[in-house]
């Protein structure tokens, strides 16, 4: 059993960002920055970071709202947190600064040359795909049921290995838009793996896990496959 902590990271602009870190007992070959959905650092994502650590990876789940809502009391955002008031106030620049701090945090804990991927969900999935076209020091990007509109022109600069995990019955983002994004990412030069889980609803990996166990198992294996592909020997 490795380290399990909740606390804060300091972003480039001095913002305190709530985060939950989970490290394996041995030396990890890769790290994961977990980008949560619109709820921010919900307890589910703390548990997910721990699941990555159980798979032998260094992981940190971060919050989105340090600039507008402060740090999380008790380490996580409560169920009644008013995320609707804060999501529109996030910026790409702030998110990039927070992800950069998270990557540095993992490398301080687990090795300076640790390859790091981002794994995001919904709002976080959108930004994971966007980061495939960014200049942060990442090795790969995985997004569950994101919104291509949030990726924007970054899709045309994509260069990192990218995984799109698409809910086939997503009522939030049409499947066709996500498939079109995959084509744009490929056209830019990124290696892209896209999987559509027929009939699965938005947020199937967390909120509907019990009903979509097989889809969740396959999605988890695809996440780990990308991580293993970029891991250090």
Task: Give the secondary structure arrangement, pairings included.
Layout: E1 4-10, E2 16-22, E3 31-35, H1 43-54, E4 58-62, H2 66-69, H3 92-110, E5 116-121, H4 123-131, E6 140-144, H5 148-151, E7 162-167, H6 175-188, E8 192-197, H7 213-230
Parallel strand pairs: 3-4, 3-5, 5-6, 6-7, 7-8
Antiparallel strand pairs: 1-2, 2-4
Characterization of this structure:
- This protein is an alpha/beta fold.
- The protein has helices at 43-54, 66-69, 92-110, 123-131, 148-151, 175-188, 213-230; strands at 4-10, 16-22, 31-35, 58-62, 116-121, 140-144, 162-167, 192-197.
- It has an 8-stranded mixed β-sheet, sandwiched between helices.
- Helix 5 links the parallel strand 6 and strand 7.
- The longest helix is centred in the middle third of the chain and has 19 residues, at 92-110.
- 47% of the residues are buried.
Provide the structure class.
alpha/beta
Provide the gyration radius in Å: 16 Å
Shape: globular
**Could you give the count of β-strands?**
8
What is the rounded distance between the termini?
22 Å
Please give the largest β-sheet: 8 strands, mixed
**Main sheet: strand order:** 1-2-4-3-5-6-7-8
Overall mean pLDDT score? Answer: 96
């Amino acid at each position: 059993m490795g380290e399990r902590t909740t606390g804060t990271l300091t972003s480039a602009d001095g913002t305190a960002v709530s985060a939950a870190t989970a490290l394996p007992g041995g030396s990890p070959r890769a790290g994961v920055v977990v980008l949560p959905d619109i709820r921010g650092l919900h307890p589910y994502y703390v548990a997910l970071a721990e699941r990555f650590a159980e798979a032998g990876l260094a992981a940190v789940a971060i919050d989105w709202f340090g600039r507008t809502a402060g740090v999380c009391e008790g380490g996580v955002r409560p169920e009644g947190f008013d995320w609707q008031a804060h999501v529109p106030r996030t910026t790409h620049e702030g998110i990039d600064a927070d992800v950069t701090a998270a990557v540095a945090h993992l490398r301080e804990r687990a090795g300076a040359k640790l390859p790091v991927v981002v794994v995001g969900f919904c709002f976080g999935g959108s930004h994971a795909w966007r980061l495939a076209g960014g200049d942060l020091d990442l090795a790969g990007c995985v997004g569950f049921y994101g919104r291509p509109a949030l990726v924007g022109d970054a899709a045309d600069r994509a260069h990192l290995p990218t995984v799109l995990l698409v809910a086939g019955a997503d009522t939030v983002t049409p499947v066709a838009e996500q498939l079109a994004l995959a084509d744009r990412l490929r056209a830019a030069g990124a290696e892209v793996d896209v999987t559509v889980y027929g009939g699965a609803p938005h947020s199937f990996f967390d909120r509907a896990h019990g009903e979509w166990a097989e889809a969740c198992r396959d999605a988890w294996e695809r996440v780990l496959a990308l991580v293993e592909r970029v891991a250090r020997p």
